[in-house]
Amino acid sequence: MRASLTPLLAILAAGACSSAPRSPDRDLAALRAVESEGAGNAEASRAWREVVAQGPPALLPVLAAFDGAGPRAANWLRAAADAIAESALGRGETLDAKALEAFVLDTRHDGRGRRLAYEWLIRIDPGAPARLLPGMLGDPSRDLRRDAVARALSEAEQRLKEGNKEGAAESFRTILPHARDRDQVDALAKHLKGLGVAVDVQAHYGVISRWTLISSFDNTGMKGFDVPYGPEKSVLPGAPLAGKGGQPVRYVDFTTADPNGKVDLNAALGKEMGSVAYAFAAVESPDERPVELRVGTNNAVKMFLNGALLFFRNEYHHGMKMDQYVGRGRLRKGLNEVLIKVCQNEQKEDWAQGWSFQARLCDALGGAVPFRVAAR
Amino acid sequence: MSLIAAALALLATRGEEDWPQFRGPGGRGISEERGLPVQWSRDRGIRWRAELPGRGLSSPVVAGGRLYLTACTGPEEERLHVLAFDPRTGRRLWERRFAATGSTQRNNKTCMAAPTPVADAGRLFALFATGDLAALDRDGNLLWYRSLCGDYPTIGNNVGMAASPVLRGDLLFVPMENVGESFVAALDAVTGVNRWRHARSQKINWTTPLVLEAGGRPQVLFQSPDELTSYDPSTGRILWRHEGKLASIPSPVAGGGLVLAPGGPLTALRPDGSRLWGSDPLQSGTASPSFYKGRIYAVNSAGIVACAHAKDGAVIWRGRTPGPHSSSPVFAEDRMYLLNEKGTTTVLGLGGEEAKTLAENTIEDAFLASPAVWGGALYLRSDKTLYCIGAPD
Fold it and tell me: Positive or negative CA dihedral for B144, B150, B155, B157?
C-alpha cells in the first residue's frame, strides 16, 4: 500500500508546491471537443474536474469558452461555471463582481456565457439589474434582452396604472421593437391597442402572410409525406399537375390576416383528410443573409428554401405553436422560393381535424428579417 | 476520492433502503420502511419543506444519503435543473443547470422535468424531456453529458417525453420512443457512450423500462403501445416479445414471479413472456399497476382502485378514492398511499376483503409526481415545493 501511494503523494506535493496557477486552456479545449454519442466524454470528465478544482480564477475563462462552443460543450461549461461559483460562495468567498460585470457588458462574448455571468453577478450584487438592464433592451443575448424588456414593460405598466397614458404609450412603442418573445410581444401589442396605437404584429414577427396554396396530393395511409410531388421539383410548372385521385391540382392565392400568420387550410381549401397541400411564397430579400424559417403546425411538415430541404417532422396532431420548428438556411439577394409541405392524415377524432400552419422569416434571435412577398 | 465518498455514503445510510428510481427499488412502488406517517396536513406532520426553482413531474429519488430532484424553468422551460438535498434536513447541497438542446414543446399537463432520475450510492443520472442526459456524482461533479436530440436530431414528441431511465450496475437503460428516430438504448454508465441501441416503433410512449432477474437470467423490459420486449441487458439481444394492446403511460411492474403489463387488458405474463391471464377491470390510468403481498392493485385516472388476486386476476374489491390521479401509489406496512393531483393522499389499509380508508391527508398544492419513501418519511414534490412528511427526525 505504501509503495502504491508514494507516486500519488509525490504528485500532490508537487501540486501543493507549485506557485503558478495551471492554465485551464487545455482542459477547456477538452470540454469544447465533446462530440455526438458521448465521444470525448471521458476526457471531458477529467478536464471538468481540473477546471473546477481551480476555483474562481477559472470562472471567467470558463465563461469565455462559451464563445463558439456547440450546445453540448456549452452544457459542460455551464455546469463547471455553476460548480465553481456555487462552491466559492458556499465557502464564504466572494466572486470578482467587477470582472463579472465587465464580462456581462462585453457583447463580443457569447450570450450564453454573458447570461451565466449575469446570473452569478446578481447573486453577489442585487443592485446589478437596476444598473444594467436599462441598457440591454437591444442586447444580442435573448435571455438578457428578455429581462430588460420585462423590466421596461413593468415600468411602463406602472406609468399606465398611474394614469400617464401618453408616457406609457411612448414606452410601449419604444420597447416593442426590442421584444422577441411572444408573451412579451403580445402584452406590448395589447397595451398599445388599448391605447389606440396601431401595431403591425405580422411585420414585427416577419410573418409570411401571402401564399399560393397548391392542393391536393394523396396522403392516404400517411404515405404522401415521403413522396416528392410535383411542387417539390418545380413549384410553378408550365404544365398542369395531376393531384389526388387524378384530379387537377388547384392553385389558390391566400392572404392571412391572423397576427401570427396562421393559415387554416381547411378554411382555405376545404377539408380533405388524407391529403397533402403545399404553400408557396416568392420572397424578395434586399440582401443575402442567414435566415431561420420558423413554422408552427399540428400536421406533418417539410420546409424548403430555394429547393433545399431545411426541416421535416412526420408528426400529427400533437399540438401547434409558433416557432415550433426551425429550419436554418440563407436568403439570396432578390427572389427566393419558400415552400411548405403540410400533410393531413385520416384520424377521425375531433381533436385531429386541424390542417393549418404559420410561418415566418427571422434571424437567430427571432427578429424579423427584411423581405417582401412578390406576386406569383 | 469518489470511492471514498461512495464508501462514506454507504456507511451513512446503512440500514436505510434507497429509493433510487421511478417508483423506488425495482420500480415496484414498495418500501420496507417502518413507522411511516399515516396522518398529516399542511400544518401538521411535515418534517421539512424546501422551495423548488421550478416545475417537475419527476419524482425525488434518494441514494447514498442524498435526495435528488429535477426541475425546469424559463419561458420555454429551456433551463434544466438538477438539485441535491440532505434528505434528513432539507438543506440544499448543490444545484447544476443545463440548457435544453431538444424541443421544449409539450402538452400543458407535463413539463421538461418529467422523467425521474435514477441514482446509486455515488452517481445520479438525470434525463429531461428535451433529451438532455447528465451523469453527476453525489457531490455534483459532472461525470458525463449527452444531448440525445443533438445526437439523433429527428427525435420528436410534441406532447413531451416522460419515460425514466433505469440502472443496472454500469448500464443505464434509456427509453427514447418517439415519432422520429425512436429507440431504446443501454449506455455505459461510466462514460455515457452507447453499449447497444435498438430501433423501436415510431409512437410516442412514456413507459419506464423494467429490470428484473428471473431464473438467474437478467432482463430489461421495454413496453411500447403494441409490444413488450425483453432484452438481454448486456448485449441487447431480444429474449422474448409479447404483442398486444398495451398502455403507453403506465409502466410494467414485476412481482410474485409475474410481469404485469398495463394495457387493455392488464396482462400477467411469466418472465419468459408466456401469457397467464388478462383483466379488463385492472386497466390503469396514468398510475402504474402494483404487486404487493400476493395481490395486484390498479388505479384509474378517476381514482377507482381495484384489488385482485395475482394468481388469476380475479377482483377482490374495488373502491373509490378522490381523484384525479397522475402519480403512482406506494406501498408500505400493509398500507397503500395514493396521492391525487390536488394534494390529497388517501391512505388505505390493505389485506382484508375490502379496503379500509385510514386517512385522507391534504396539502393544497398541485402534485403529479409519484412519492418517494426513505428514512421513515414520505417525500412529495409539487411544482413549487418539496415536502418531507414524517415525525421529526
Answer: positive
